[in-house]
Amino acid sequence: MFFHGIGRNRTIDIALKPIVPDDAVLCSDGLKSYRAFCKKHGLTHYEVANKSGQRVVAGAFHIQNMNALHSRYDAFIRPFCGPATKYLYRYLRWFRLRTKITPEAAFKRILEAY
């Protein structure tokens, strides 16, 4: 359970700390937990509004790649009607595989394996 962002801050810290380099610049949608993470770890942080005309900060920083990835993931996972959490990692791996190779190439690899 989250209490005033404390749980969310901890979750973001656990998820991001191992993968975000010390010299990274983090761009986010302005969620306070991202701001707290950057302050705690001394990272540069840009908050990007998701409004028309305000999607780029300082001429270069944006979150459109992440928004596009999120949209593709939503479209991928929707037919499964909310898979169980214990299987979510497998669905994420499947999604990553689908974004890297075409269905035809995947099918060919499966046939070659037999």
How would you describe this structure to a colleague?
Strand 1 (25-28), helix 2 (32-41) and strand 2 form a beta-alpha-beta unit. This protein has 114 residues and is mainly alpha-helical. The chain has a two-stranded parallel sheet with strand order 1-2. The model has no long low-confidence stretch (mean pLDDT 81). The chain has five helices and two strands; from the N terminus they run αβαβααα. Helix 1 (6-16) packs across helix 2.
List its salient traits.
2 strands, 52% helix, 5 helices, mainly alpha, 114 residues, single chain
Short description:
The protein has helices at residues 6-16, 32-41, 64-77, 88-100, 103-113; strands spanning 25-28, 44-47. It is mainly alpha-helical and 114 residues long.
